[in-house]
Amino acid sequence: MKQPYSTAQVMLRAWAFVLIIGALQGCANLTAVREFGKSAAEVTSYVDAGNAYQDSARTIQPYLTNAPARADVPDARKKQVAAANALQSTLVGYFSTLAQLAGEDSFTLDKELNAIALGLKSLPDGTLDTGTTEGAIALTKIAQRLVLSRAQSSAIKELVNEGGPTATRLLSRLELVAKSWRGMLENDSRTVGDALFALSSARDTSPLVRMLARDRMQEYEQRYEDFIKRVDTATAALGKIRSAHAAMAEDLDSLDRKELQAVLKDTVTDLKAARKNLDALR
Question: Taking CA 235 as the corner, what is the angle to CA 102 and CA 34, rounded to the nearest 5 degrees?
């Protein structure tokens, strides 16, 4: 007749099971990392900025005196925005992966732990008393949490170490592109403003035309103010993401450190506020 397992044997089997699987998985208190990755992946302010950049090309077309330029500007900007959006899509993939790795359900052994608990409780009477059984289950859960926490942090660390430098370069590149777009929008605004000002003050035009030109000037001033706000919001969002990502990259060995978590949480708050401000412009 097979002898019941001893307490030591039961504990050894439970721990070995968790340690073996835990080496391949992970679990940690990474709420701030997860929310940061999710928010960074969901940032759409760059799309808004690109749309503003292209809309401006259509706005200035009637005011361009050079015929070839009038035709070329929209197409050229469309290509520029498409290239920038491709870079942003790469960043979306990176930060989505970060959020997924830091997810609560990405690294878990709940199913396996439940099986261990059922196994312990189904042992023949007299093998383990109730207190020892519950203690074994609790200790196994502690082992799971510690082992999986290390594995999950290791997976995030590997992602950031390997993909982080490229993500940083892309963020910096997109910031520069957004700043160049801002400069172009300022030039566009001057082009439209100068043309309408000339029309509104021309003595050889009718009072009605001059009045309409002045009204159009006010309309376009507001339009370009909104365009530039969109680009500024995108630039600021990219900068905040880059800074928070850099802070995380420097602290990969202690992702649950309070100071780092505060930085990530503040960034998430700022990104949500930026989205709200952009929505208000529509």
Answer: 10
Name the amino acid, one letter, at 63: Y
Phi-psi region of 230 (alpha: psi -120 to 50; beta: other; left: phi over 0): alpha
> How many CB atoms are closer than 10 A to CB 77?
19
Q: What is the DSSP string of 74-105?
A: HHHHHHHHHHHHHHHHHHHHHHHHHHHHT-TT
pLDDT, averaged in runs of 10, over the chain (282 residues): 48 47 48 92 83 89 69 84 86 88 61 50 51 53 51 82 90 92 92 80 75 80 90 92 94 86 94 84 66
Distance CA 172, CA 239 (A): 8
- Kindly report the number of other CB atoms within 10 A of residue 33's CB atom: 25
Sequence-ordered list of residues with C-beta below 8 angstroms from that of 60, at least 6 positions apart, any chain: 73, 188, 191, 192
Listed in sequence order, the residues at least 6 apart from 273 whose beta carbon sits closer than 8 Å to its beta carbon are: none
Q: d(Cα 32, Cα 9) in Å, to the nearest integer?
A: 39
Cα(193)–Cα(57) distance, integer angstroms = 14
Do the beta carbons of residue 87 and residue 170 sit within 8 Å? yes
Are the beta carbons of 11 and 136 closer than 8 angstroms?
Answer: yes
Q: How many CB atoms lie within 10 A of CB 52?
A: 24
Rounded to two decimals, the pTM is 0.72
SS3 256: coil
